[in-house]
Queue: 3 jobs
Job 1
Amino acid sequence: MPPAEAPAAVPTLRQRRRAVAVQEILSAAESHIAEHGPHSLSLRAVARSLGMTVQALYHYFPSRDDLVTALITKAYDDLADAVQATVDAAHDTAVPRLVVAAEGYRRWAIANPERFQLIYGAPLQHYRAPADGPTTQAVRRMSAIFQQELFAGLTTQQLGAADTPALSPPLRKHLEGLPPDGLGDLPPAAAALILSSWGHMHGLVALEVFGHTAFIGTHQAEIFRIAMLDMYADVHRRIPAAEPAVAPPEPTT
């Protein structure tokens, strides 16, 4: 009989209060960014909006970079949650799930332009994300959703045989060296395809969020869907069909 799992430790009152305070600080910082933009983020203004001193805020976030890292991680996680919820709720089987995911990505970006700018706009001055830290893990989570929906049902052999322009030896070596929880579990040709597809999708969304496609007016959603359907079809045209299973020879009598 397997040993019973130990019950999870109940957070202390102090831990619960700290968690509430952290969420209040993050919400206040998000409100500040929504009103003034990410590049105007001020710890003093965030603290003032909560009736705190900057010194008190430092008990929760020891530096501006710690607060920015938490905000970026939360934005990525909220975006990934929105995309995953959109895919999970999809019922129109005529539209590829990758296109559904891309449309969920677009809707979140349009609804949260300042937070989108925080994670995908010009880097904040003097900010450097921690190496392989929470922001990196959040990006990989987002990547995993699109990887699943773009390549669902395809084998490693099919992905490895994708018809792409010849990759240079240095690029192939770099793609092969990516971490396994990122794109490193894909053959180089498939990794190149998903990076190209991501750039196509994200580029269209960024153009819209930053107002560069306003001349299209209310037709931007339709243009985006057409582009995503074309992109999905092009990727799948490049991937060979699975080889039919070979039936074992019948036994001789």
Note: The chain is about 60% helix and 0% strand.
Job 2
Amino acid sequence: MLKPLVNLLFPKVCHACLNLLQDNEDTICVDCRHDLPVTNFHFDDDDAIKKVLYGRANIENGTALFRFEKKGLVQQLVHGLKYKGYETIGYSLGNWLGGELKTLDTYKTVDMVIPVPLHKKKLKKRGYNQVAKFGQQIAEALDVDYVDDVLIKVTNTQSQVSKKQFERWNKNDAFFEITNSDFINNKHILLVDDIITTGATLEACISVLNKAKNIKISIATIAIA
């Protein structure tokens, strides 16, 4: 009896198009799920992520769920996840991508999922890492651990830092650190982030993770720009 009243006072809307959700819909409406620009990189053996990082970082596999388009549905989702506190978006997209990755042999060797970390000041201000739910659901689908305390960010930067800045700092390993390299020795790590653009952030993370012995790194992001 309370459900209609709750829906009236706090209507559920699609986080992509902002239209009201039907009773059988959650987070993203059926129409938007159909219209979202999926990449299918992981199904098509597409090397788009490897090409972004070519000559800078070696990875085993790489995928992104969507293509990022300015003023498009994906931008609306990422904005809601990152700046409006809608963590259910990360949960839903993690379920989506995790459900697909678990069917593929190339991702069955993953030992743990690690998120690109936020600096502690930014984490305190925002209250959450926007890729946490996304990564946790992928880890659950792959039946592996989600580990967010091995890779840490030690330099606080603006969100739109340039590629050149990352590359300059990366040489001094000043952005990120690993707290326990022994824990990730001989492991296949799936590194997750929200968007890959130039690949500079992921490159910096991979550079630090490679200080561990005999590790393999794959990448999964919500979107690629």
Note: Residues 87-101 form the longest helix (15 residues).
Job 3
Amino acid sequence: MRVGAFLLSAQFPGQTHGQALERTMSATTAAERSGLDSVWLAEHHFVPYGVCPDAATLAAMLLGRTRRIGVGTAVSVLPTNHPVRLGEQAALLHLTSGGRFTLGVGRGGPWIDLTVFGTGLDAYEQGFPERLDLLLGWLRGARVGADGPQFRFPEVDVVPRATEPVLPAEPTGRDGLAGWLGLEEEPEAALRAFPRQRHEQGPRQRHEQAPLRPGRAGRGGHRVVPRPAPGPGGPPVVMACTSPSGVRTAAERGLPMLLGMHSGDEDKKELLAAYRAAWRAAGRGEEQLARVEREHVAAGVAQVDDRAADARAELLRAMPGFFAHGLGAHRTVDGQERRMRDPRAYTELLCDLHPVGTPRQCADRLLATAERTGIRRFALLTEGSGDRETTLHNIARLGAEVLPQLG
């Protein structure tokens, strides 16, 4: 099982844009220290729900600050991005990061973004498949041209070519031999960065000491945390799927799915069944299906505490106000009013569906989803408290106390 952190760069009430972005950067380095597999970055425009407008640009910075962890976009919104420009960015990040970049793409929503960037509602309602095919052609080809309703241009050379071998990681003065060998600090080292007196300040910080995580220790208390070698053929691409048409689009192109936070296990099973049906209808083989199904990603929420009630209370304290503040700021492209979920009811739903509770309960929740659905990759929202220090502590506990129980 591979567990990563999903980072919205969310601006909670009372925070600045810079504080939200700094929390994302600190959370990424904390996730690498804690042994998480990946971080996933969201992309939004004009709303405090997420203050990162370009997930690929932020991914570039975070790939430069880390050495092992994977960095993915969740998602880069195709209707407001030129597919060739996004393909160039993805190839650049794939080649220069040692294959640590994953490009997640999606349709986004019918927001005013479509007007601001000049693509229009058609790019959202009709144009996604054409944009996706152009992007995939760019990532997999050597020369690409276009002759469609949205894009028309003669063949040009693909530079840099994503299918070339990735560049090896280089040691830096900051990392030295440890960085070159892929050595990372034990996740419990991050936990010890929080003095005990912090835990006495309130119910959110009761954890005293994490148990040691088993692992292959090296010199100086470090543990080797390897990443799989990058495969050929350019950066991995996943596609956000929330509807039958999206599932069909992904299956027909052989792309793994990224499933949303609102989906419970039964919803996931329905989408996976629809994916398999569309895959077979497209004439694709069973062996490749088995490989791709190992790459589906499920988004969720994670909050770890000594008591389940405290973990839930932490999210119910912060997330309803954030949802009202962030989601309520969306403006539709046609100016029509959009009905928003009840913020508290939505937070309650997320707490019910996802790993929110004690370390054992969080591990059991992830294992149950894996058993019921077959999904083995997770992108978990870890900043639901809205607080920087609590977020970093949550990530450290996820790595030190939950991951070892997943096998």
Note: The chain has a mean pLDDT of 88.
